[in-house]
Amino acid sequence: MELSSAFEKGWRNRLREMEIPISVKNDEFLLHCLEIIKSGGRINLSDGLKLYNTTNLPALCSLANLVKRSRFGDNVFFNENLHVNTTNVCVLACRFCAFRKGSRHSDAYELSVDEVIHRIQPFSDSIDEVHSVGGLHPQWTVDHYAELYSKIKNNFPHIHVKSLTAVEIKHIASRSGISVTETLKLLKKSGLNSIPGGGAEILVDSVRDRICRGKENSSEYLEIHGLAHSLGIPSNCTMLFGTVETVEERLIHLDKLRIQQDETSGFQCFVPYPFLPDKTRLPEAQLATTSEIIRIIAVSRLMLDNIPHIKAYRMNIGDFVASLCINSGADDIDGTVGNEEIMHEAGSKTRLDYDKNQLSKLIISSGQIPVKRNSVYTNFEEYEPVISKAIVMPINY
Ligand code: SF4
Prior knowledge:
Strand content: 5-15%
Shape: globular
Order of helices and strands: HHHHHHEEHEHEHHHHEHEHEHEHHEE
Bound molecules: iron/sulfur cluster
Number of strands: 10
Largest sheet: 4 strands, mixed
Distance between the termini: 33 Å
Strand order of the largest sheet: 8-1-9-10
Mean pLDDT: 94
């Protein structure tokens, strides 16, 4: 299906021709923002902040949904993937992290290359992507990951390998005594296809210092992604919000991603997710409300004009909030995500047993059209769930 080019080309022209929702028409400031976007301009930080703080949340959602529809119509994307976390052993101890363990902890684990292959095997006919991240292992070097990726590719050539956060790449390079660029080149050659984007947290160093001291700083996160883009490795970018940051700092984060994307164009998707507190060490966190999650989705759709996809990550926010977000600017709900651990350790209750039929039912129940995509958003396939649409019940708000 030739959706890809149709999606991206001329969305502002389509936006100019679309009927403006009455709620937006009746809000002078939202109308002003729509005019900026239509004319090819950008929502700046101060307007972004005003958008975020609007008391007219339904109209903000309508505006973000309008812009989403100008790019992707009523389509909402998903894929079929499996998460495999290679190890929870980590030399760092980010305060928001419920996943990491010290190497002597009774629940610490590290999967051998063959164990990863055995994990993938039972799912290999139904997935086309493995999403693999882990802790900063004290011993593993680039050779370990190169062996892992080439074995995955040898065994499952059809599977896209989306792996490693920026800090893992930095750590592997340092453990191996080579540069980040050299590390990325070796990993790409052995089978790494893309980078998932985790670990951005908030790209403001004073915040990082409080929640993840010792991790790469903001510039390093952006630089590592930029290097990957320059080597032809696309990535996603993320934001962890609802810890100790201010709303202004969330918007500074969006602006930094937008600036990086202007330079290297390799971000495919922005994935914001709120902090989940179980088993973490951040008692002062100001947890994000559902309204804040939706506001972030909507404002990111309006500010990030150069990052095509905005993801409502249901593993973190759950089906109910995800269904609201795909009517408020998001166009993607990620995938089947078998075996997710990181969000579930921190308290997520999202079901892990969804197949593409159930994901499609969720999308249809939210009034949208399910479209299965590949990992790099170049192949699309409208998916008709096996059950009749007539018996798909809406999610109760
Ligand atoms: S977030 Fe990543 S780097 Fe930080 S402690 Fe957890 S596993 Fe380690």
